[in-house]
């Protein structure tokens, strides 16, 4: 016969409790391992990042990069100078076109005042004075030119400093100024 053990039912439960305890121990051991390994992993990542920062810093401080920065600064300065010159050129061209328009208008105005017997040889213009040299068939035509130009409101001090007879024609010089200057005319 078999021996009867009163504690036998408790012995089997103890074995199952031992497995749960071992599982808890394993989980606890795994968590401790993670707590130890995670800072080591972060330290390694930090070390690699610092190494990359040092490498990039060395590259950024290299002579080639410094030379490139200096060249870029010079090119930027040159670009700004060229943009300023371009703007000045555009302004100059606009002023020249406006001046050409005034000059064309002035030539048409003078031409409208010439009788058929008068021919122009040259017109010299400055900012405040115009000098015309021409040829006429008679003195009366020259006087008519002077009279016609005197009647125009924008001209003043219309004057004929010289008339020279040459082979039946009269060569003359006529000069006048603008009222208020040519800059007032442009406005």
By CATH, the architecture of the domain at 113-181 is named 2-Layer Sandwich
Oligomer: single chain
Helix content: 55-70%
Mean pLDDT: 84
- The beta-strand count equals 4
| N-end to C-end Cα span | 137 Å
Low-confidence regions: 182-187
Could you tell me the radius of gyration in angstroms?
52 Å
Overall CATH class of the domain at 113-181: Alpha Beta
Q: Give me the secondary-structure category.
A: alpha+beta
Number of separate helices = 4
Q: Judging from the principal axes of the Cα atoms, what is the shape? A: rod-shaped
The H/E string reads HHEEHEEH
**The CATH topology of the domain at 113-181:** Alpha-Beta Plaits
User: Could you give a short account of the major beta sheet?
Assistant: 4 strands, antiparallel
Give, in spatial order, the strands making up the sheet with the most strands: 1-2-4-3
Question: What is the percentage of strand-forming residues?
Answer: 15-25%
What does this structure look like?
The protein has 187 residues and is of the alpha+beta class. It has a domain at 113-181: Alpha-Beta Plaits (2-Layer Sandwich). 65% of the residues lie in helices and 20% in strands. It is built from 4 helices and 4 strands. The protein has helices spanning 8-60, 63-112, 139-151, 182-186, and strands spanning 118-125, 129-136, 155-166, 169-178. Strands 1-2-4-3 form a 4-stranded antiparallel sheet, covered by helices on one side. A hairpin with a 2-residue loop joins strand 3 (155-166) and strand 4. The protein starts with 7 loop residues before the first helix and ends with a helix.
